[in-house]
Amino acid sequence: MEKPCQIKSIPLSSFRAAKPEKKQNQHAPAPVRYTYKYREIPLQSCKGRREEKEEMGYCCNNSFPASSHVLLTDLSQRWKCPKLQNLRHKGQFHGSQKASKVLAFYGLKAPPYKLDALEPHMSRRTLEMHWGDHHRGYVEGLNKQLEKDDILYGHTLDELVKVTYNNGNPLPEFNNAAQVWNHDFFWESMQPGGGDMPRLGLLEQIEKDFGSFTNFKEKFLEAALTLFGSGWVWLVLKRNERCLAVVKTSNAINPIVWDDIPIISLDVWEHAYYLDYKNDKGKYANVFMNHLVSWNAAAARMARAEAFVNLGEPKIPIA
Question: What are 136-145's pLDDT values in tens digits?
Fold first, then answer.
C-alpha cells in the first residue's frame, strides 16, 4: 500500500527572497515601427524626443506633405500672447536644439469646379492666372514665412489669421495667411449656373435685415463700386447685432478678425476681373451677383452660423 503524499508548507518569505534568474530573450521581436504615409520611422529613432512624442502623438521628421494643415512658427516672443506663453511654460513650446525640426505647410486648395466651369462669366484664363498664380503665390509666400519660425503648432487657418492680425497690428504673416483664407472662401462663394436668389431661411433673413432682396443687392454692389483701392466685399452675420450686414475690407483684411461670420465674398482686387472686364468693376460685380454667386454655399454657411448666433424664435409651421 502506497504511503499518502505529504505536503510540506513553505514560508512565504522564501518566495519573496527568491530572485528568478533573468533569461536572455533570444527571440526578441524586431523594433516596432510607426508607419507614416510618406516615410517609415523606427521607434528607436525617437529616443530623446519623449516630449515631442507625448505632445504630438507620433514621431515627426522634416518631410511633410504640402497638403498638411499643421503650422509651426514661433511668435510667442514677438508679441504678448498669454496662450502661447502658457504653452511655452508648460513645455509644449520648447527650444531644444536636439529635437528634429518639424516643417508642415498649407496646401493650395483647388476651386470646387473645373477652371472653365464659370465661363462665359469668368474665363478659364482668369482662373488660371488668379488661382494658379496669385492664390498659389500667397500659399507659397506663407509657407516660406513659416519656415523661418520654430513653433506655432496646431493652428487652423482661421486661428492663424486671427492671431497674426494681432489686434490691429498685423504681423508679417498676416497678409499671406488672410489672402489664402479669402481666396479659398471666394472660390466656394461661386458655382456654375449661380446667381438668381437665395431661398427659404436665408432669403427671409436678408429681407428682414435689408428690407428686400433688391435692397441687399444694391447695397452689395454699391460697396463694390465705392471700395477705394483693392479689397473685398462681404455679406456677414454679425454676432453681437445678430443680423446680416454688408461690409467692405481693404487689402487682405478679413471680417473674422472682428468675430463676424462671412456668408459670401467678392474679390475686388483688379486681377480678379481685369482680363474679362478690363476696368469695368461695376459690370464684374453685377455678373457675380446675377450669374456666379452660390446661394447654396451661402445657405450652408448661414445654417452653420445660426448654431453660434441666436436669430430669434424659429417659425414652426402649424399643421
Answer: 999 999 988 8
